[in-house]
Every structure is written in structure tokens, then in C-alpha cells.
Amino acid sequence: MRKMLLVDGNSLLHRAFHALPPLRTSKGVHTNAVYGFLNMLFRILQEEKPDYITVTFDKKGPTFRHTEYAAYKATRPRTPDELIGQFDILKDILVALRIKFFEVEGFEADDILGTLSKKGEKAGIFSIVVTGDKDALQLVSSNTSVMLTKKGISDLEVYDPAKVKARYGISAECITDMKGLMGDKSDNIPGVPGIGEKTAAKLIQEFGTLDNILKNTHQLKGKLRENLEKHSDQAIISKHLATIVTDVPLEFGFEDIAYREPDYDTLMTLFRELEFYSLIERLKPKDNAVQQVKQVAEKTMKIHNADDFQNLVHEITAERQIAVIADAKRKDLKSFKINGIYISVNDKSFFIDAPWLEDKNLLTELKSILEDSDIYKITHDGKLLRNVLRQLDIDFVSQFDVMLAAYLLEPSKPQYDITTLVMEYLGEKISETADLGEKIAYLYKLKETLDDKIREYNMESLFYDVEMPLSVVLADMENAGIKVNPDKLKELGAKFGRKLGYLTEDIYSKAGMEFNINSPKQLGEVLFEKLSLPVIKKTKTGYSTDAEVLEKLRPSFPIVESILEYRFLMKMKSTYADGLLALVDKDTERIYTNFNQTVTSTGRISSTEPNLQNIPVKTEEGKHIRGVFTADGPGHVLLSGDYSQIELRVLAHISEDKSLIEAFIKGEDIHTRTASEVFEVPPEDVTPSLRDKAKAVNFGIVYGISDYGLAQGLGISNQEAKAYIDAYFKRYPGVRDYVRETIRKAKLSGYVTTLLNRRRYIPDINSRNYHLRSFAERTAMNTPIQGSAADIIKVAMVKIYRHLKEYNLKAKILLQVHDELILDVPEDELSLVKQILKQDMENAIPLKVPLVVDFTHGYTWEEL
């Protein structure tokens, strides 16, 4: 007998939503209900293997039941916002699954289920109704069973006529009579007061139907009789409301709902966007291109001799497009142990292992191939590969980096390794034991998919003109490193050590005992028990001695002043003096950092191992640390080009605020101008204190600061801080409008963009949680500003790098620190390089206000 699966979409999506914990994509799209629904659906499909399948939904708007009984479902809570959007997502997936769904105005999903089951019965088709609504049990017959969710969505119980009888003591046809008597709280169906399931079942067992019960109330006694006679009309309407309609007007043929193969391409695209990776693996795509890649990935040809290599050369020459990955491990601070190079050409993968890379003839030919700009090169982490191949004297530049492309598409992801990208974008799971030979074959297909997305999001210029060439700039900066004076680092370490010794004795003296100052537990006991300082905050493990607590105690207790000084010096010694000394290359006396291009959500470049963007500058000790970084030697200087107030200038540009634009065009001091506007005093009467407050407001607005945040920063009340912010927006209405419009658009689209169309998704922008939503709104407000500033300095870096090469200059970019570029420059090139920096930095991206760069130079970083 043919089998038809009828799925109650409304009921099960609600069930899945409440059964599963919150789940959302990195873009903030809620998906838990859809994910749960699909897991259940795929399991049932696998077990039942139906010939026909359809899903039904409620149509928006009132049904005939609402017309007949105004209070129908009136007590139901509003559908959560997090669920509402998942209905359309599920419907898109059903289309891709080629599963037809029905929704009919004026009727509910279970009415359509009832109608379809009756049509199936007439056609000799057995129906299985899947739902979480017990009302559907009235449909059970010899030709229809009901799968009812028991708890959550994973536990399903199948009801046939015998099971209904055993469970309720009545036949399935009498379920509506039972509902008429007992009502249904979930649908606000009243029933008869005082009658529950057991009483209703006994009455039906004795009298058969609701009509017979109402005709024979004289045989009943007491309150039961009284209620039945008093509420008979209510019982009749309740039965009517609970009765599933089986003649909904539907135009369809069974061939329309035949179970068929999905549209795998569309389905995989949807699953990747929704980050349903386990479902991708479960529902393998019939993608011939990907299957072909998989076959290639499983066999890599190893180069054994010169003939093998010539075959590779022939393949490359014919195809003119390759994928390249190196098998290399970092040996020390700047060099690598190269085990071999993988090259994929069309449908073949090759491996050149280390011994062959020592063959001069082979290496010469390989160099000409990898340096040929007419051969299109795809890779993963081209910045790293450029530095690896540099050891073989190969000047490698790739045309497409799948890691960079994936980062641009979703900049908040934790990782962009090949295995993850293949799963996300191609729907294939690469074995955990797979080597690079298996992985490289997927780069072609990844490139196609990612490139399509880059173009769809209008990011071609950002990717090809900025990020790809920037990876070359950053690779060369990493390779250059920066010169340091190790002797001076040792001196500073010793000096900090001596000061720490004095402070230790001072703290012991003030405490009246010796203890481990670095132990929060011991420190807490000394401060709050022995010395009886007021307890500010406690943690699970004892007293809090964090910086916030100690700062509150500092003014009143000299020992706290000493402890804070101790902590500061300990960090200066361990992190900077000793920490940096350990990272100095003994041969070159340079420090080599990593510039991360795929880490920050705003597009900013970050620096790690060590973080050279975080070298202190505001304290004397911090300045001395900067003093150990030097130019390359005699005849060289360090040149700094530092953007002046770039984020405020970007704010003026994108907000189009007339006052801000005017101030920057006139070259006014923007903080003095803001102080004058906000505090309503003439510019000449702005005191340093007022200017500092205005500066805090200016930058606070850029970073989406709250009343509380500004109040904490300035040491004023929340009301006063709010008054400052309100006054600011009154004086700069363009900024106020920008903030409102940016947040409005973010709530609609789920993301914000920079001047170069860089995207950042804001997952919590529509959250019901006030704190999450407020933070998301501040992020939405700030990202276009901070991200555009990042775009500007990146464009400038690419231009400067090209011009330095074009003029054959020896100057080189060493560091990018926030809004500043630091270069090592021969003194005889200083004038020209400064001109290049001024031209390229101030004209990186045209704005409605001028970009201004401040220049300084000196032999050490401290002098800049």
C-alpha cells in the first residue's frame, strides 16, 4: 500500500523552538526550530520511506473558528520574534527539498491534514500524520495513523485505532466529543466546567456521543447534571471548534506531493548559510564537481624524478591556473622547515618533497612558474605561503586566497581552515587524518564558490584591490621585523627588577608581614582581614583584588598605591622587558611579529607574538620600552605617519553633519569646537578641562558610549553624562540621524557596512535582552566608522608599498599601529618617502573632509 506523510508544520516548528536551546548563525539568524524540525523530518523519512509527503501551515489571519467564537485561541501568547522568521526559512528549505507545502486562508494546518488524509483514504493511500497536537487523534482510522510528539521532538508515539482506545478508553471518532466536554485550554475552548478527561471518557463510554449525553442528562446527578444542562450550548460549540475540517478546498494531484530527490545545490547553499553542517553531512549532495574533487583529493602524485616534474610543468603550462600550499613548520622566529610543496592543476594534485627542492634546476623552473603573474594562483593563507617560499628565493604572489575571501564574507568566524571551509561551502567532510594533498584539491571549487559570494556582496574591489595586495605588504612587514637594542632591554629589566624589590619591601612593611603579592587569595586576606580594608567585591574564591577594586581603595590606603605600582612594574618587566628580550632573534637583533589579517570583525589589522600594537606610550616606563626599538642602523631613521582624528573625520563624512564637516575643512581643533558647541561658551573660553570633556564625548560617540560609560570615564553623574550626549546630538544633528539610520538599517538587514562595503553582522541587534541589544546597537554604530578607518589605512599601505617598489627605494614599512604607520627609511630617502606617505595616506579614499597626517622621525620609536 502506498504511504503518505502529512506533517503539521506549525505545530512541530513551535515544538522544536521550545524544545531546543537557542541556536543562531554567526550573522544572528535564529535557527533552532528549523534545525530541530529538519532533524526529525529526515529521521522519519529514513524510517518510513513515504511515496508522498507534504507539510501544512496556518495561514496568517483569522479562521472560520475565530469568526464563530471570538475568544478562540485568545489566551495564546504572542509568537516569539525569534520564531517568526523561522517559518519563512523552513518554507525556503521545503522548496529546495521539493516538498510541497499548503496553507489556506480561513483554515488551520490540521484542517488541511484532515482533508489530505481523507483524499488519501479514497485513493487507497495510507496516511501518517506527524504533529504535536492531540486534536489530530480524531483522524486515526484503519487508513490513518498519527505520530504524536511526546516530549520535545525526539520522542514520537504512533497512534492507531487500538492505541487511541487503550489510551483514552474511547474510539478515535469520539475524540471531538471528549473535547466538547472537557474543552482545550491551549486553544481557549471552554468545554463544560468540572469535566476533565476521565469524566468525559466515562460519559462517552456510557452514552456514546455528546448528543446522546446531552439528551440523557436526566440520568445524571448533582453538579455534573447541572453543568451539562447549563452549558450544553458551550459543549456543542466546543466540539465544533475542536473538529478538524476534512473538506478544505485544495487543488492538487498526488503527483504534486510525490516524494522526490531534493534540489541539492539550493539545499546545500541554504544549509551553509544556516550553518547546518551536520545536516550537510547527513544529506550528501549529488554534486558531480565536488565528487570529482573528492576523487582527486584521495590520490596525490609524488614527484620522483625530473620526468615527473616536467609532466607537472606541462600541465601547468597548458592550464595556466594552479592551487599551491606548502607543508612547512615554523623553525624559529622567522624561518621554516619546508617538508614539501603541493600543487594542484585542474583534476590532478602533485607533491614536490624537500629533497627535490634542493635540485637547482628544478627549483629554478619552479621559481619561474610560481613567480609568473600570468599563471593564476589560488592558495589558503597566501601571506604565510609568501614567507615560506621566500626561503627558496621565490617571490610568490597569489591571485586568490580562500582564507581571506571567507574572512571577508563572515569576519566574526573563529577559524578559516580548509577543512571548515570545505564543510561550510562545499558540504564535504574531510577526514581528520587527511593530508594537504587531499585538501589542496578542494581549493579550485572553494575559489569558485567564494568568488561568486564576493561578487554577490559587491566586495570585488575590497577583496582584489585591497585585501589581496595587502597580504603581500603584511608578509614583507613580517619578514622585515624591527630592530631592537637587546642591551637596553636587559638594562630596563634589571631596573624594573630593582624597583620591584624596593616595592616588595615597602608592601611587606605596610602589611606587617611577608606574603605572596602575586597571589590574589593571599593579597585579599592581607588587605581585607588583617588590615580590615573595606570589602568592595567578592568572588566565588574569596575577595576580589582586581584593578577596579584597588583603584577605589587607592586614595585612602597607601599600601594599595604600592600594590598597584608593583603590578604595573611587574607587567612592564615580565611582558615587555623580559618578554620581548626572549623574542629577539640573536642573529639579526630583530623582533618578528605576526600581522593578522583575518581576526578582527572590524577589518583592523592586529599584531600577535608579540603584540607590537600594544607597547605602552602614556607612562615613562612605556616610553622607555619604545626606546629599545630602533632604525636599522646609522644613516637610517624611523618615520611615523599618523592620521589625525581619522575616526572623527570618517564620522563627519558618513554622517554628513554640516558643523563637523565645516570644522574639519577650516582646520579647527575639533575638541575645542565641540566644547564650545556643547557647553555653549566661546572657543577662546574653552578651558583644558572642558576640552578634555569634549574629547571624551567626541570619541565616546564614535564608540557608541552609553550615559553610564561616559559618566564613569569623566567621573560625573549619569544625568550629567546624558545631558552632555543630548547636547552633542542637538549641536550635531547629522550625527544623531546617522546613529538612528544605521541602527534602523542594521535591524532590518542584520549587518552594517564600511565605505568599501566591508560587512559586519550584528547578531544581537534585535535581541529582547536589553544589554545584548544595547551592545549590538553600539557595535552597529561604531563599526562603519572604525571599519572605514581600517579600510583607509589598508588602502594607504597598498599604495605606499607599490610606490616604494616603483621608485626602487630601500625604505620599508615596519609596523601598523592603530592609525599610524612606521617605516624604516635611509636618511637620504626621507624627504621623498615623506612625500609618498603624505600623498598616499591623505588621498587613500576621497572624503568630504580632508585627511590629515602628522609626521615625525627619529632613531628610536620613543622619539616619534
Supply the CATH class of one domain.
Answer: Alpha Beta
Compute the average pLDDT. 91
Q: Helix count, per DSSP? A: 36
The coarse overall form would be: globular
Q: Which strands sit side by side, in order, in the main sheet?
A: 3-2-1-4-5-6
Q: Any low-confidence stretches, pLDDT <50, length ≥5?
A: none
Q: How many angstroms separate the termini? A: 85 Å
Question: What structural class do the secondary elements suggest?
Answer: alpha/beta
Q: What proportion of the residues is helical, as a percent range?
A: 40-55%
Which topology of one domain does CATH recognise?
A: Rossmann fold
Radius of gyration: 36 Å
CATH level-4 homologous superfamily of one domain: 5'-nuclease
Strand content: 5-15%
